Amino acid sequence: MENNTPIPATQALHFGAHAASKNRMYFSSLGMDLCDEYGFPRPEFFAVYQSLMDGGCGFGFLGNASVDADARYNSRGLKLTSPAHAQALRPLFQAAQERDFLLGVQLQHYGPQAMPSDQGIILSPSGIASASILNTFPQARAVAMSEEQILRCIDQFSAAARQAQQAGAPLIQIQASNGYLVSSFLSPKTNRREDDWGGSPIKRARLLLSIVEGIRKATGNKVAITVRLGIDDGLGEEGQHAGLLGDVVVALEVSGVSAITCSVGISETFRFFFKNKEKAQAMSREGCRYLKSFVQIPVGFTGSVADVAEANEIIGCGDADFVGFGRAMLADNHFIAKELAGRKDLVTRCKGDAFCFRDKKEPMATRVYCCVNPDYRRPEKLQQYYEENLK
Ligand SMILES: Cc1cc2nc3c(=O)[nH]c(=O)nc-3n(C[C@H](O)[C@H](O)[C@H](O)COP(=O)(O)O)c2cc1C
Questions:
Q1: Is 57 exposed, middle or buried (0-12, 13-18, 19+ CB in 10 A)?
Q2: Pocket of ligand 1 contains residue 31 by CB under 6 Å
């Protein structure tokens, strides 16, 4: 007889044979910008992630570990480009193990959304830089990557995955969303190549699939690989959308990926998605459900989910196998534990202004802050500046 009982968000989730989470809620990759200029974590970095791990999720990811020592989003991001970086992260993975928490690390190449290199160059599939980068750095020059540069990038992901494994990470997330390098290869809007790295959805996915293969070899198949997949960039029919990605998720499953986390938006459309919560969530749910129908591996998403009740509803109706939280988690690292203990009244809720995301590029900010979390509340002057200038 068929069992139609809805799956609750508190049910365990397996990532292939290698890793399991005690429930289906995760803290999404959040680059908190708490590293020094060489990409080493400062003490506050450990404090935030330890607090997040104690907050009731079953799994979560360290955000934005750059695989390329020279490609940066700002000067405070994490890097995973040497044994010393791996060594620095070891205590965090030990802490995760002690807590029975499944902690992963996101591997990132910023590509067309990176700050230009010292030579003013930005790497991209077809020489198209992000409009927001060109606004800030009008002299920047986006180059269409050569075969040699592409192969080097694949090696960088493999090397970073090896470092992640050395650090003790049981789980890796490849950042293939939000307009960064891998997602710019996947998009028909930014990948106009006519060689084997472009031309059809599956050829545009060759970089991602090669990265997966490289990581599997580099880690001896001992680390679970997940992909954060950009399923809609918000640019309509000529941009990326879920309808183009059926074959790609099948290929990812065949290549050994153990879960897919969906995401929407790129730098030009983040503001739209942050401001239009219902639209963002509807697009994520619809796209996630559609892509889930192609594969057996778990598929989930992060985007505008506010609480455990919403997570239960989304998972229970089959739109996603698991659900992530970004800003809700920043506002209150422990909101899931509080809700599961029946103490909703103690939760500090996100106000949804997305100023935290603005902190990443604001020269006056020295880290990511929050306007409600007392552990890292935004300085009043900066908060006021945002309120007056970013309405
Ligand atoms: C301050 C901040 C930092 C973020 N850093 C990352 C990151 O490092 N990597 C990533 O893939 N997404 C990052 N994101 C996006 C989140 O993971 C998440 O997808 C997004 O906030 C939407 O989810 P939400 O509506 O639950 O906040 C960041 C978002 C914010 C607000």
A1: buried
A2: yes
> Which residue in this structure is represented by tokens 């927001």?
132
Q: Residue 315 in contact with residue 15, Cβ under 8 Å?
A: no
Q: What spacing in Å lies between the alpha carbon of 63 and ligand 1's midpoint?
A: 8
Q: Please work out whether the CB of residue 356 comes within 6 Å of at least one atom of ligand 1.
A: yes
Cα separation, 308 vs 25, whole angstroms = 8
**Single pTM value for the model:** 0.97
pLDDT along the chain (391 residues), means of 10: 82 94 97 96 97 98 95 92 98 97 98 90 93 88 97 98 98 97 97 98 98 98 97 94 98 98 95 91 97 98 96 98 97 98 98 93 95 97 93 63
CA pair distance 173, 146, nearest whole angstrom: 25
CB 81 within 8 A of CB 67: yes
CA distances from 235 to 23, 84, 131 (A): 34, 40, 13
- CATH code of the domain occupying 13-350: 3.20.20.70
Beta carbons of 212 and 257 less than 8 angstroms apart: yes
Pocket test of ligand 1: the residue of 28, 76, 261, 278 to mutate, having most ligand atoms within 8 Å of its CB, is: 28
The single residue listed with the structure tokens 């929050």 is 370
Could you tell me if 7 and 51 are in contact, meaning their C-beta atoms sit under 8 angstroms apart? no
Specify whether the CB–CB gap between 123 and 112 falls below 8 A.
yes
